[in-house]
Amino acid sequence: MRVDEAYSGNVFIKSHPNFEESEAVIYGMPMDWTVSYRPGSRFGPARVREVSIGLEEYSPYLDRDLADIKYYDAGDIPLPFGNPQKSLDTIEEFVEKILAANKFPVGIGGEHLVSWPVMQAVYRKYPDLAIIHMDAHTDLRDEFEGEALSHSTPIKKIANLIGPKNVYSFGIRSGMKEEFEWAKEVGMHISKFEVLEPLKEMLPKLAGRPVYVTIDIDVLDPAHAPGTGTVDAGGITSRELLASIHEIARSEVNVVGCDLVEIAPIYDPSEQTVNTASKLIREMMLGFVKK
């Protein structure tokens, strides 16, 4: 499968028609085969694109316009329904092609397990990689009810691959006691409940390093994002999440890729969640993709 012909249909607002001329590539990962509560995140990427037409192209936060960068919307990766391993392999191969073309990958999910193959591909290109992870959940399980391929495992998998001390989680408010204990034992950074202030303290320590940013939309309180598979009370506001993205954008870290996952439109008839997600994608691109 070619990266520049993965999808036809709706595209993210202001996307560039030419893959070769673009600096970044948006792609959807429509998978929810391993979710432990409510399915539906496979419909997230397509709907985020559709509602992006309502976005302003200018960001007053960053004083930057979508016209300032060129990004290509490759659409949703065609994934084999119900086959987690083949889906993950397909995602990894797809992202490898984006990276080989020296494009900045911007992923939309889909359950959080889809971030695992992306992070593997990014790590091969950037061996000094660090992960910034914003989420309600630790995602540090080895398995869920006997299944090693689960949306509750991607951060444990990447921590084992690149070293736990290279993974920085923020906004965490849910997880098994054993997960928190493991993180403490191995020296992995977890900031409970909050994102912005602990992130400000941590970013100078990552200056100059390649960083991949993965955001589960359930880091937001359900009042701000009810359209997700595993809602969890007590989250941050959309304003704080935007400010956190901007803090990363203005820092000295070298962001080399990002994703926003676990968007399940069916649980939010108001479409507040997908509209918020669309704005977050705009800010991530304008903040992270450098000319």
From TrEMBL:
Q: Its family? A: Belongs to the arginase family. Agmatinase subfamily.
Q: What is its EC number?
A: 3.5.3.11
| InterPro entries in UniProt | Agmatinase-rel, Ureohydrolase, Ureohydrolase_dom_sf, Ureohydrolase_Mn_BS
Organism of provenance: Metabacillus fastidiosus
Q: Is Ion transport found in the keyword set? A: no
Which terms are listed as keywords in the entry?
Hydrolase, Metal-binding
Q: Which residues form a coiled coil?
A: none
For molecular function, the Gene Ontology terms on record are: agmatinase activity
Q: What is the name listed in the Swiss-Prot or TrEMBL entry for this protein?
A: Agmatinase
Question: Per its UniProt entry, which superkingdom is the organism in?
Answer: Bacteria
Q: Does this UniProt record's set of keywords contain Hydrolase?
A: yes
**Main EC class the enzyme belongs to:** hydrolase
